[in-house]
Design brief:
Blueprint (H helix, E strand, L loop, with lengths): L32 H13 L1 E3 L2 H10 L7 E4 L2 H11 L4 E5 L12 E4 L2 H11 L3 E2 L9 E2 L3 E5 L3 E12 L4 E7 L6 H7 L5 E5 L7 H11 L3 H20 L2 E12 L4 E3 L3 E5 L7 H4 L9 H8 L3 E4 L4 E5 L2 H13 L6 E4 L6 H12 L6 E8 L4 H15 L5 E7 L2 H10 L4 E3 L3 H12 L1
Parallel strand pairs: 15-17, 17-18, 18-19
Antiparallel strand pairs: 1-13, 2-7, 3-4, 3-7, 5-6, 8-9, 8-11, 9-10, 11-12, 11-13, 14-16
Helix pairs in contact: 1-10, 3-4, 6-7, 11-12, 12-13
The protein binds adenosine-5'-diphosphate (ADP) and magnesium ion.
The site of adenosine-5'-diphosphate has 19 residues, from strand 3, strand 8 and strand 11.
Length: 433
């Protein structure tokens, strides 16, 4: 039996993998609102999203019922796709890594080939903002052209990781469609959860439970039983952290059909999913966060002006909290990891400096496994290379701290050494003002 990715660690890494899993609610300090936001963002970053067309291709491989569709990157190609698909009505859907496209004008119902071309023209090469993106939206480089279906009812079905129960959980609601977030907020009793114990997998009660939540009978009920088994297999075998079908529709002729699909994969397991990893679309990701991931750093952009470079996620959160306590605002979360070396520190600096809001840089390193002199070397390299024009405040404590402070002092560069963390945070806030 194959277990979900949460049970595994990266091979060759006896320590916990760097990133989201190093952070638990226990790490969040009393004024940790920033920490909570970072935690949410890091968990999000520990996922790789697929586009709808990729997610549907994946689900199709697991026998899930989907409508016929083709992907296009030009209006002409979109029209040709509709012609190839046949039929009289189509939907043209913007492919971006965000939901809420229906509300943001990213899903167009078309009654003619001409309308398909026009809808694709209106979407391709633009940015689409939806309730789930920032106002700047995401770039639309492809559209998915699909046969339009006759919908009787829209349901919500998802499989996700229930971390508390350490198993996969199905979430279902008969009130699916574009307002599911509102339903979950105002009428949470309309959203049911059915846990799947990892040791037994999907037994018939899971499908029956979902049929009862959805009020399914006849052919659709049989399809639901199969879908529960198939979706679970897809989830586990692909190391997913979310498989969501919203809407899963009941068509007018009483059949189930997945009209939308969202799949998020657990980034920590991508090393064993090369085929899926190759489907990544970096164009949909935050540029700085993408560079950070490539350098093996955990980075989250925030809105403030004081950049932080810290080793260890808990220490990074505490550093951000201290900055806030002193009246400043952190510009980012950056964990260079327990095994940081000079090259990583330099990469961290480059990343920090590409954010134009940064007015001061606070380096807070506790030399436990890493040696402070190695970090100091990285700081000096980066400061020389990148022509840092904002004040740098460094608090280096632990192994070889005295040597490190001497190196920074002798460098002739403008780096303020601080011996304790509170002092370092105070100085950073002062100098950024
Ligand atoms: P999003 O979740 O990003 O808003 P969806 O794919 O769920 O995008 O589409 C939004 C709505 O558009 C759906 O709830 C459904 O009502 C309608 N829709 C989507 N695909 C089709 C289709 N193939 N045929 C008919 N209606 C569709
Ligand atoms: Mg949807």
């Amino acid at each position: 039996m194959r277990l979900p990715a949460i049970f595994f660690q990266r091979p060759g890494s006896p320590r916990r993998p760097q990133g989201a899993r190093n952070i638990t609610p226990g790490n969040i300090t009393p004024c940790g609102i920033t920490g909570l936001r970072v935690l949410a963002l890091l968990i999000q970053n520990a996922r790789m999203n697929l586009h709808e067309y990729q997610a549907k291709a994946l689900l199709r491989r697991y026998r899930a019922p989907t409508a016929a569709g083709l992907v296009a990157d030009s209006p002409g190609r979109a029209e040709q796709c509709a012609r190839e698909l046949g039929g009289e009505r189509w939907v043209v859907k913007a492919q971006v890594h965000a939901g809420g496209r229906g509300k943001g004008g990213g899903v167009a119902l078309c009654d003619s080939l001409n309308e398909v071309r026009e809808a694709a023209e209106g979407l391709l090469g633009r940015r689409l903002a939806t309730p789930q993106t920032g106002p700047e939206g995401l770039p639309v480089e492809q559209v998915y052209v699909e046969q339009a279906s006759d919908i009787d009812r829209e349901l919500y079905l998802a499989a996700l990781m229930d971390r508390a129960a350490e198993c996969v959980c199905f979430v279902g609601s008969a009130a699916g469609g574009m307002d599911i977030e509102e339903v979950a907020r105002v009428a949470p009793e309309k959203v049911a959860r059915i846990r799947v114990p990892a040791a037994v997998g999907v037994l018939p009660y899971v499908g029956r439970g979902l049929c009862s939540v959805f009020g399914l009978k006849g052919e659709a009920a049989g399809q639901m039983q199969e879908l529960a088994v198939d979706l679970y297999r897809a989830f586990v075998e692909c190391d997913a952290s979310l498989v969501e079908i919203n809407p899963l529709v009941v068509t007018r002729d009483g059949k189930l059909l997945a009209l939308d699909a969202k799949v998020a994969l657990d980034s920590n397991a991508l090393f064993r999913q090369p085929e899926l990893a190759a489907q990544r679309d970096p164009g949909q990701e935050d540029e700085l966060e993408r560079q950070a991931a490539e350098a093996g750093l955990s980075y989250v952009s925030l809105d403030g002006s004081i950049a932080c470079m810290v080793n260890g996620a808990g220490l990074a959160m505490a550093t951000m909290d201290l900055i806030k306590l002193e009246g400043g605002e952190p510009a980012n979360f950056l964990d260079v990891g327990g095994a940081a070396d000079a090259a990583r520190v330099a990469a961290g600096f480059r990343l920090i400096l590409s954010n134009p809001r940064v007015r001061a840089i606070l380096v807070n390193i506790f030399g436990g496994i890493v040696r402070c002199d190695v970090i100091a070397d990285g700081i000096l390299q980066a400061v020389r290379e990148a022509r840092v024009e904002v004040p740098v405040i460094a608090r280096l404590e632990g192994t070889n701290a005295a040597t490190a402070r001497a190196m920074l002092g002798a460098s002739g560069l403008e780096i303020t050494a601080a011996s304790d963390l509170a002092e370092a945070a105070r100085k950073a806030v002062e100098l950024a003002a």
